[in-house]
Write a structure and sequence with these properties.
The complex is a heterodimer of chains A (181) and B (188).
Chain A (H helix, E strand, L loop, with lengths): L1 H15 L21 E3 L9 H5 L5 E5 L4 E7 L8 H5 L5 E3 L14 E10 L6 E3 L5 H6 L8 H6 L9 H9 L9
Antiparallel strand pairs in A: 1-4, 2-3, 3-5, 5-6
Chain B lengths: L1 H10 L5 E6 L5 H8 L13 E3 L7 E5 L7 H10 L5 E5 H6 L21 E3 L6 H12 L9 E4 L5 H13 L1 H6 L2 H9 L1
Parallel strand pairs in B: 1-2, 1-3, 3-4, 4-5
The chains are: A alpha+beta (181), B alpha/beta (188).
Chain lengths: 181, 188
């Protein structure tokens, strides 16, 4: 009788087939929308430190080693992969990749460091990015002080956009007064 | 690393029995650890078995930021494991403390309580990630991560030199006749 039961079990298991994945020997990609390790694009990063100030686990650090160079350090060890940094990055420099095979025997293997070059603002003395896509740079091209005479020739002044018609309209414009009863 | 791998290969040639040690986790990592024992991700093909006592175990799967009440218990469990032992820290809490790394009632990761040999990051890690970590310790797969260092540009010494040359050769400063003062002021 027990033998018959075993044969029946075998038949059932054959009908079911094999469901076990051959995972470590076969790749198994993450599903759509999976948030894996965040990856920084150093060509897009402007060093605004938004990710560092909003990280819930405080795992992104910023160090200003001198006036021009700022270092962004990301230590993946206590990262919760919430995707907050990628959400609020103004330049979309951070993407959440689908990389999840991060197991290691050394903590240093899951770190990323970015060396960012920052320009010094001639007005306030703080540093900002060199590229023209930067908001502060756009501001500076609209009449902010710039001490290099070579660059000043190229820079657009605010007077370049000046139109006398607009000024006239503005000067002669009258605000609607209180309605007379 | 290679010596350690060889040692691990020699010590764990047979089945690795693991003890699941929860030190104040939110149960996310614990559910994923249970997942790897299901027929879908069957880890018994590597001989990995979950046991109820640390005395029977070869490795500890530590999950959770080690909280203050569980700290002595984690230490005791580590001491109870017989000598060639491995500790896997699973999840961001066990590795570095997660969001609670500096809270008053949390030790701040398993590394501050007991020596940790392997780190499996994730919050929680996928079951595949846990299998990958254990397989890495057993020498079945290769490590896929390495530290990343990126640079926007080299330090622009040339730019400073050019600016300096421009100032020296510019006619305006010569006409104004104050170039020497300017340069000396810049030096100071």
């Amino acid at each position: 009788m027990w033998l018959w039961n075993k044969i029946k079990q075998l038949a059932i298991s054959f009908r079911a087939g094999v469901v076990t994945l051959r995972y470590p020997f076969e790749p198994r990609p993450a599903p759509e929308g999976f948030r894996g390790q965040p990856v920084w694009d150093h060509t897009k990063c402007i060093g605004c430190a938004g990710c560092a100030s909003h990280c819930p686990a405080r795992t992104i650090f910023l160090r200003d080693i001198c006036q021009e160079v700022r270092i962004l350090l990301y230590d993946s060890s206590r990262c919760t992969y919430c995707g907050r940094c990628a959400d609020l990055c103004p330049e979309k420099a951070i993407t959440m990749s689908d990389k999840f095979e991060l197991a290691t025997d050394n903590r240093q293997d899951i770190t990323q460091s970015l060396e960012l070059f920052m320009m010094t603002c001639q007005r306030c003395g703080r540093c900002y990015d060199l590229e023209i896509k930067n908001y502060i740079d756009r501001l500076s091209s609209l009449g902010y002080r710039y001490d290099s005479l070579e660059a000043r020739k190229v820079i657009r002044r605010s007077t370049a956009d000046f139109s006398p018609e607009e000024l006239e309209k503005t000067v002669t414009y009258e605000r609607p007064g209180r309605l007379e009863k | 690393m290679t010596i350690f791998k060889k040692l691990a290969g020699r010590a764990f040639r047979r089945s690795v029995w693991v003890y699941h040690c929860n030190s104040g986790a939110c149960n996310g990592c614990d559910i994923e650890i249970l997942n790897i024992l299901t027929p879908y991700y069957d880890v018994e093909r590597f001989g990995i078995r979950l046991v109820g006592s640390p005395r029977q175990a070869d490795a500890i799967l530590l999950s959770g930021a080690v909280t203050r009440p569980t700290l002595p218990l984690v230490k005791k469990a580590y001491q109870a494991v017989p000598a060639p032992k491995l500790v896997f820290a699973i999840g961001s809490c066990a590795i570095g403390g997660g969001c609670w790394y500096d809270t008053y009632n949390v030790t701040g990761g398993g590394e501050k309580a007991i020596p940790v040999h392997y780190f499996i990051p994730g919050c929680p890690p996928r079951p595949e990630a846990i299998i990958y970590g254990v397989a890495l310790a057993l020498g079945l797969v290769d490590k896929k991560v390495a530290p990343v260092e990126l640079k926007q540009m080299e330090f622009p010494v040339d730019m400073y030199r050019r600016a300096k040359l421009f100032e020296v050769n510019n006619v305006i400063y010569k006409l104004l006749g104050e170039e020497e003062d300017r340069l000396e002021f810049g030096r100071k």
